């Protein structure tokens, strides 16, 4: 009788998975999962990935539109911050930013030398450099943590979030540990739920993480607030393992070879060209260089359709997000430049005001770097 039942399995929620990030002024309750899969040995509970934005392909549903096609940055550093693998797109971004700065300065000087007023000279130079400025503005490096979590409804997902949320989680973790010998939020049996909240906008975006607590009545009849239990059952752990490996999954982040990145970085950037490179890209089943596909026969990426759709939705949302931050940075830079130019003209010094170019990720802050190279001894 029961034998017949044993011959049936449960449909596995594999292939498709959800990646989510917090929108402005939103919060969510999550249960962090202990280090798993390829992160297990290193004891890491999330992976930090860098992605390049700036290339687009045609939207297959509406060919009049394009959609972003980010890909993983190839740059790698060792513990001493020495670059061990160089990324062609990173080099190209540096070259373009420098060339823009130089061109603006040279052209402004040239115009001024011919007797044109400074403001007009700057405007003319900016106009002449518009194309390169657009390139620089549209190419950027996005850095996020990818953290496997259980959602409040018991489903599993990948939380994609900036470093600020990673720091907030570590803070909450320490608070729980310090709190009367509390256990680790990651602990399979004694872990906790965390409420992650995103507040503010642009440069003032902040993240907080708090341990979820609940009211209870103690044995002595008194009321108390205690950490809400979040034990993970074997069944839940099994479901968690259906999530992709955040470190190695190609479903999560598009990976191109160095040659492919170089072709993109120094190519025309047209949607057709980007599409051709992407379709060639790192396909294990690719039958050699394929002919450039026409829009009608363009094939979808070789990964599960569900996750691909979900992933690209996230990419577009993230794009808007980062755009707001970039605009805030540009406003600040413009303000700074205006102030600098005002003080310079007050001194009547010949000044060449170039449009400040602020890369979105100009440096990695110390603890961000430390988080990428955790020392097992320092906990
Ligand atoms: Zn790069």
* Major sheet details: 8 strands, mixed
Q: Which ligands, by name, code or SMILES, are bound?
A: zinc ion
Succession of helices and strands: HEEEEEEEEHHHEEHEEEEHHHHH
Shape: globular
Structural category: alpha+beta
Helix content: 25-40%
Residue-averaged pLDDT: 81
Fraction of residues in β-strands: 15-25%
Poorly predicted runs of 5 or more residues: 283-319, 344-364, 375-379
Number of strands: 14
Element layout with pairings:
Blueprint: H1 2-5, E1 18-20, E2 27-32, E3 47-53, E4 56-58, E5 66-68, E6 71-72, E7 76-77, E8 83-85, H2 88-113, H3 118-128, H4 130-138, E9 140-151, E10 156-161, H5 163-178, E11 193-199, E12 206-211, E13 213-217, E14 223-227, H6 234-240, H7 258-265, H8 271-280, H9 305-346, H10 366-372
Parallel strand pairs: 1-10
Antiparallel strand pairs: 2-9, 2-11, 3-6, 3-9, 4-5, 7-8, 9-10, 11-12, 13-14
Helix pairs in contact: 2-3, 2-4, 2-7
Bound molecules: zinc ion.
Residues 52, 73-75, 87, 89-90 line the site of zinc ion (ZN).
Could you characterize the architecture of this molecule?
- This protein is an alpha+beta fold.
- The strands form 4 sheets. Strands 1, 2, 3, 6, 9, 10, 11 and 12 form an 8-stranded mixed sheet that branches. A two-stranded antiparallel sheet has the order 4-5. Strands 7-8 form a two-stranded antiparallel sheet.
- A hairpin with a 4-residue loop joins β9 and β10.
- Bound molecules: zinc ion.
- The site of zinc ion (ZN) has 7 residues, from α2.
């Amino acid at each position: 009788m029961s034998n017949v039942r044993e011959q049936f399995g449960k449909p596995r929620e594999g292939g498709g998975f959800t990646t989510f990030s917090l929108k402005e002024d939103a919060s969510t309750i999550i249960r962090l999962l202990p280090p798993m899969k390829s992160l297990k040995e290193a004891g890491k509970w999330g992976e930090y990935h860098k992605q390049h934005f700036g290339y687009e392909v045609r939207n297959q549903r509406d060919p009049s539109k394009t959609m972003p096609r980010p890909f993983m940055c190839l740059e790698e550093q060792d513990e001493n911050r020495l670059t061990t693998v160089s990324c062609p797109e990173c080099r190209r971004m540096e070259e373009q930013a420098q060339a823009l700065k130089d061109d603006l300065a040279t052209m402004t000087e040239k115009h001024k030398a011919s007797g044109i007023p400074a403001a007009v000279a700057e405007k003319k130079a900016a106009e002449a450099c518009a194309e390169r400025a657009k390139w620089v503005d549209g190419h950027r490096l996005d850095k996020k943590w990818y953290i496997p979590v259980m959602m409040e409804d018991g489903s599993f997902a990948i939380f994609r979030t900036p470093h600020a949320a990673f720091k907030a989680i570590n803070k909450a973790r320490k608070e729980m540990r310090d709190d009367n010998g509390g256990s680790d939020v990651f602990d399979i049996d004694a872990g906790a739920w965390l409420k992650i909240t995103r507040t503010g906008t642009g440069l003032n975006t902040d993240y907080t993480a708090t341990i979820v607590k609940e009211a209870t009545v103690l044995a002595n009849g008194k009321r108390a607030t205690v950490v809400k239990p979040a034990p993970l059952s074997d069944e839940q752990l099994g479901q968690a393992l259906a999530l992709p490996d955040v470190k190695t999954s190609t479903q999560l982040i598009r990976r191109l070879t160095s040659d492919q990145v170089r072709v993109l970085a120094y190519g025309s950037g047209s949607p057709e060209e980007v599409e051709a490179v992407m379709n060639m890209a790192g396909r294990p089943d690719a039958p050699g260089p394929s002919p450039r596909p026409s829009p009608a026969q363009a094939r979808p990426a070789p990964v599960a359709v569900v996750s691909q759709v979900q992933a690209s939705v996230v990419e577009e949302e993230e794009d808007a997000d980062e755009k707001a931050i970039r605009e805030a940075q540009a406003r600040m830079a413009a303000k700074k430049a205006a102030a600098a130019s005002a003080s310079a003209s007050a001194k009547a010094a010949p000044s060449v005001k170039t449009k400040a170019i602020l890369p979105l990720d100009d440096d990695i802050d110390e603890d961000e770097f430390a988080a990428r190279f955790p020392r097992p001894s320092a906990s």
